[in-house]
Design goal:
226 residues, 2 domains
């Protein structure tokens, strides 16, 4: 039961959710029964927010069938819905796992938001330090250092990271980082600022960072196109 809770997006303001299908699968209950419960208590569930759904296509390879609704439930909605389930042993095990994963996801989001705010402060400080340095790159000083920082922090090019996570042009990459990734970027920014303060040029800083190695290696997965 490792994949019970998901995020609405990769941004720091994302909301955790689960689905009616997940509840059915891991509680050992027919999907039809769970969906009937959701429809029956829809007004109760909507007291805790909008109750969205998507229309899912029939399973590939199945004979016939029609698109069906997959309900999305936030933490409060999911916690309320599972109180309506019978307390069989599989259901009790699932309830405990679901509560734990919602709590873990919420802690991760809190940490990501804290790292994001801290990162903004470091970015401002680094930007000022670069501006005050003697390094000139035809107006591309900060973008050049930024690419270097992401390469040394996460082992990936910032342009490729933006593409892999489908980050819109103009939005900060930092809003799409996990807490560990944001911490790695912040650490490298701090190192760059220290090295600038002692008078190193870009190539010297690059070599110094490469000696340290990548802080937190990530693997990119290109977004699936429909």
């Amino acid at each position: 039961m490792n994949d019970l809770v998901f995020l609405s997006s990769q941004q720091v303001d994302a909301e955790p959710f689960t689905t009616g299908d997940v509840i059915a699968k891991y509680a050992g209950i027919a999907r039809k029964s769970v969906n009937e419960l959701i429809r029956r208590y829809k007004d109760d569930l909507e007291d805790f927010g909008v109750l969205p759904f998507e229309m899912a296509k029939p399973i590939k390879g199945s004979l016939g069938g029609h698109p069906r609704r997959v309900w999305y439930l936030n933490k409060n909605q999911a916690n309320l819905l599972i109180t309506y389930l019978d307390n069989t042993k599989p259901v009790r095990q699932f309830k405990k796992a679901l509560v734990r994963q919602f709590d873990a996801m919420q802690r991760e989001l809190v940490e990501r938001r804290a790292q994001f705010e801290l990162g903004k402060q470091f970015s401002k400080s680094l930007h000022a330090t670069i501006a005050e340095s003697q390094i000139k790159m035809h107006g591309h000083e900060y973008s050049t250092f930024n690419r270097l920082i992401y390469k040394q922090a996460l082992g990936v090019d910032s342009t490729k990271l933006r593409k892999a996570r489908d980050i819109p042009k103009g939005e900060a990459i930092t809003t799409y980082l996990s807490s560990d990734e944001a911490e790695a970027v912040r650490l490298v920014k701090n190192r760059v600022e220290v090295l600038l303060d002692v008078g190193m040029d870009y190539q010297q800083i690059k070599q110094a960072l490469q000696i340290k190695g990548v802080v937190y290696k990530v693997t990119l997965q290109l977004p699936v196109k429909n």
